[in-house]
Design goal:
The protein has about 290 residues and is mostly helical. About 75% of the residues lie in helices and about 0% in strands.
C-alpha cells in the first residue's frame, strides 16, 4: 500500500528523491567537461562509483555495526544488473546525441515506471496517465524522427534503452521491498567491466581526472545511492517523476558549461513532453 502523502515516510522519500535528482543534474555537464572516449569515461565512472559506495558501506559496518550485506541476494543482483545496463546505455547515448535529446527521452521515466508498475506491481493506471503516456511518446517520436539517418539517431535509441532499464530498476526495487542502496556500486562495476575491452586507453589527462572524480565519487555515488533507496519509501512512478528535474536543469548546466544548444525539433518535442508531465503531475497532486 503506498504511503500517505502526509506520512513521515513519504516526506523522507521526497527529501531523499529531490536531493538525489538535484545532484544527478550535474552528471551530464561534468561528463561533457571530461570530453573523453565513451568507453574510457564509462570505465572510470563505474570504478569511481563502486569505490565510493564500497568505502561508505565498509565505514557504515564499522561505525554502526550495521550488517546489511553489500549485495542483497538475487534482488540486489538483478537490480544492480539493470542499473549497470542503464549506465552503459546512458554513456553511449551521451556521446552520440545531444544532451537535450538524451534528457528529454529520459523524461519518459515516470511514464515507463507507471506502465511497468501496472504489469509487475498491479498498480492501476487512470485515463489521465494513459493520455500523458501517449502525448509524451509523441514528443519523443518528434525528436527521434528529426535525428533519423544521422548519428544522433543511434544515440537516441541508446537513450530509450537507458530510460527503460532505469525505470525497470526503480520498479523492481519497489517490488523487492528491500533497501538496495548499494546496488549502484555493483552496477558501476558491471558498467566498467563492459567498457574495459573496448576502451582504447584508460589514461585521462590533466583536468579530466578532476571532473571524472567529482562525477563518480561525489555526484554519481551519492545521487545513485539516494535514488536507489527512494523506491523503498515512495511509489516507483513518484520517484520517476522527479527525474524531470534533470531534464529541465541538465541542458541548462551543459549550455552554461560548454555552450551546447538544443535543436529546434528537440525544443518542440521536449516542450511537449515537459508540458505533458507538468500537467499530469499537477492533476495527480490535485487528486
Amino acid at each position: 500500500m503506498p504511503p500517505s502523502v502526509r506520512s513521515p515516510e513519504y516526506r523522507e522519500g521526497l527529501l531523499v528523491t529531490v536531493s538525489g535528482v538535484l545532484l544527478l543534474t550535474l552528471d551530464t555537464p561534468l561528463l561533457r567537461l571530461v570530453d573523453g572516449n565513451q568507453w574510457t569515461v564509462m570505465f572510470w565512472r563505474g570504478v569511481f562509483v563502486f569505490l565510493a559506495l564500497a568505502v561508505w558501506w565498509l565505514w557504515r559496518r564499522w561505525s554502526s555495526g550495521n550488517r546489511q550485506p553489500f549485495v542483497m541476494g538475487r534482488w540486489g543482483m538483478f537490480v544492480s544488473l539493470l542499473y549497470g545496463l542503464s549506465n552503459v546505455f546512458f554513456v553511449i547515448a551521451l556521446h552520440n546525441t545531444t544532451v537535450a535529446n538524451l534528457l528529454v527521452i529520459l523524461a519518459l521515466n515516470p511514464l515507463i515506471c507507471a506502465l511497468l508498475s501496472l504489469v509487475f506491481l498491479n498498480d492501476r493506471i487512470n485515463f489521465t496517465t494513459w493520455a500523458a503516456i501517449a502525448a509524451s511518446f509523441f514528443g519523443v517520436a518528434i525528436i527521434i524522427q528529426d535525428s533519423f539517418g544521422r548519428l544522433s539517431f543511434y544515440g537516441d535509441v541508446m537513450a530509450m534503452l537507458a530510460v527503460f532499464t532505469l525505470a525497470s530498476a526503480i520498479v523492481f526495487t519497489r517490488k523487492s521491498g528491500l533497501n538496495l542502496t548499494t546496488s549502484p556500486a555493483l552496477a558501476g562495476l558491471i558498467a566498467a567491466a563492459v567498457a574495459l575491452p573496448f576502451a582504447p586507453s584508460l589514461i585521462l589527462e590533466g583536468g579530466q581526472w578532476g571532473y571524472m572524480a567529482a562525477n563518480g565519487i561525489v555526484v554519481m555515488a551519492i545521487a545513485t545511492a539516494l535514488l536507489a533507496y527512494a523506491p523503498s519509501l515512495l511509489p516507483a512512478a513518484h520517484v520517476g517523476m522527479f527525474y524531470l528535474l534533470e531534464t529541465v536543469l541538465g541542458p541548462l548546466w551543459v549550455w552554461l558549461a560548454v555552450g551546447e544548444e538544443p535543436s529546434k525539433m528537440a525544443f518542440i518535442g521536449g516542450s511537449i513532453v515537459i508540458a505533458t508531465l507538468i500537467v499530469h503531475s499537477a492533476l495527480s497532486l490535485r487528486k
